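W.,

You were right to be curious about this one. When I first looked at the sequence I had no strong expectations either way, so I just let the prediction run and decided to look at it fresh. Below is the sequence, 78 residues in total, followed by the output.
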Amino acid sequence: MASIGTGYDLSVTTFSPDGRVFQIEYAGKAVDNSGTVVGIKCKDGIILGVEKLIASKMMLPGSNRRIHSVHRHSGMVC
């Protein structure tokens, strides 16, 4: 059963006729497709570490001033 256009994928509280909650399934797929993230809460803010930085081949180096490469295998977002 396709969920697009049926209206059963618009809310986390809406069940499809066969008992599925599509928003929960979408969240599970997002977790399966994502890398590891570590968060640390400190006095002045938070620190997030991610498994790897994936840069789009369509993005020009230096075009996004919020994403920085720290090392070959690590990056930083401001």
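Here's what jumped out at me. The helical segments are 22-33. And, maybe more interesting for your project: The chain has two domains: 1-34, 36-77.

Coffee later to discuss?

I.
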